[in-house]
Backbone:
């Protein structure tokens, strides 16, 4: 055995590129196959030291096979079996879900993890736990994030854009038919506070239902549900603008950094660009993240500011 290993060591040479030479690889395999050392037994007369002909040439090994590399190989061999279990779970785990659905007592807690997912993905995940529910997320103004409405399914598609107003017939989510039994808010969403998008659904729910859930709008998206512009959480919360002139309000929104203003004549329900500077502002509504809408008219209104 010694002559064979000596022959291998003599044939070793530095590899000009990365990795080990064939000779050094064979030597490494031979070294790692050596049995573990057995503790020496004390005897009255000290026995001659054990010859380790294989290691006599170890001075040549560091340049070819770093000791740390040998240790790493041995560490991999000692990895616990639990690591293999975790690795197997990670490799077989499903792709990240769009919803987080958990059973708590008589309810399913449904949290929307991806508010921009395809509604068909939501429906598929809800059906997997036996819920005949369809969730559709819609861009809404800040104070409406986390709110929702329910309606029997099927319902007409509500993805078409329209101008938000304060009139029940125009606002996309006004005229709500009322809550459907067994569907409740997940939590109360306060203005200026992070809000979890989700609902509590009775586990025994059987009615075909669509839930339209308000989510934060992306840049350029028109709000599908709004609160008044001076409500908590909105751009002009507690900023007076009702019965101010168009000229005054135009200066106000410029100071607030609002990019675009739409002026609509209430009587004719038509957009004016621009309206007379002396006209009065009657109402204000969020339109998108950087756009607001004001209803104006030639005379003052009986409406008052929220604050």
Residues:
């Amino acid at each position: 055995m010694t002559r064979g290993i000596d022959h291998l060591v003599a044939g070793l040479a530095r590899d000009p590129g990365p990795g080990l030479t064939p000779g050094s690889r064979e030597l490494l395999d031979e070294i790692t196959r050596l049995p573990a050392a057995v503790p020496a037994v004390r005897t009255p007369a000290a026995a001659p030291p054990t010859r380790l002909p294989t290691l006599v040439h170890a001075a040549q090994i560091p340049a070819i096979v770093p000791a740390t590399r040998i240790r790493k190989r041995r560490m991999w061999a000692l990895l616990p079996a639990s690591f293999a279990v975790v690795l197997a779970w990670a490799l077989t785990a499903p792709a990240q879900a769009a919803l987080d659905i958990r059973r708590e007592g008589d309810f399913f807690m449904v949290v929307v993890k991806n508010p921009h997912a395809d509604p068909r993905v939501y429906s598929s995940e809800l059906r997997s736990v036996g819920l005949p529910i369809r969730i559709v997320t819609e861009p809404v103004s800040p104070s409406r994030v986390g709110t929702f409405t329910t309606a029997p399914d099927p319902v007409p598609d509500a993805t078409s854009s329209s101008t938000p107003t304060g009139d029940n017939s125009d606002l996309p989510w006004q005229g709500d038919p009322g809550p459907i039994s067994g569907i409740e808010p997940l939590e109360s969403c306060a203005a200026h506070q992070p809000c979890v998008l989700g609902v509590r659904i009775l586990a025994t729910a059987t009615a075909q239902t669509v839930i339209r859930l308000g989510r934060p709008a992306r840049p350029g998206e028109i709000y599908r549900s709004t609160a008044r512009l001076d409500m908590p959480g909105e751009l002009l919360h507690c900023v007076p603008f009702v019965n101010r002139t168009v000229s005054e309000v135009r200066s106000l929104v410029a100071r607030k950094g609002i990019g675009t203003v739409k002026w609509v004549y209430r009587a004719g329900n038509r957009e004016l660009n621009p309206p007379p500077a002396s006209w009065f502002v009657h109402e204000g509504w969020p339109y998108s993240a950087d756009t607001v809408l004001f209803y104006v008219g030639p005379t003052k209104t009986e409406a008052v500011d929220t604050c």
